[in-house]
Automatic annotation (TrEMBL):
Entry-linked InterPro entries: NAD(P)-bd_dom, NAD(P)-bd_dom_sf, Polyketide_Oxido-like
Name of this chain's protein: NAD(P)-binding domain-containing protein
Residues in NAD(P)-binding domain copies: 7-192
Gene3D superfamilies: NAD(P)-binding Rossmann-like Domain (3.40.50.720)
GO MF annotation: an example: oxidoreductase activity, acting on the CH-NH group of donors, NAD or NADP as acceptor
Species assigned in the record: Planococcus donghaensis MPA1U2
Amino acid sequence: MKLAIFGATGRVGGEILKRALADGHEVKALVRSEKLETRPNLEVVIGDVRNADDIEKTIKGTTAVFSAIGTDRTTTLSDAAPLIVKSMEQNGVQQIISIGTAGILNSRLSPGLLRYEGGDSKRKMTFAAEEHEAVYRLFEKTSLHWTIVCPTYLPDGEAQGNYRTEKDFLPLEGKEITVGDTAEFAYRLLNSKEFIQSRVGLAY
């Protein structure tokens, strides 16, 4: 399979990249600068995720997309997402697995709201959640086979495999999930139809 990865130099994106290459997939990764070492089956595209031409170069010829674009106090994510969707639609690429945040899962405390709106999350800053919600609302309007993986607190750490998942909600009493398990779960979705067109909460 040929995959496009956005955010491949980040924590989760880097782990997804490792797994894809280890399994023999061909990967095209869009990065801002020469941060990725050359590896077999890896095509590095130097560019900007907010540039339509760079997005097109990365998606053309692929069969599925991973997005692990960070929010880092900028609108990079919400700027890039419409360009990714447009390029996928134009190139007939159906599947996208995106890394989101638990803040955009449904609230258990305030039905009808998201966690970051309903008081479930202790985070006072809502910028990142708002960015991820913009992507979620965009995906909802498409016919793409999208899944947004929504981890809670995300410390560094290897995959352990003993995590819980729940469609549209954070598993009860979920406190954290490692980068390794988040990447492992997201990567496994490549061959699963279980959470197509939904968010999925992820926690131990």
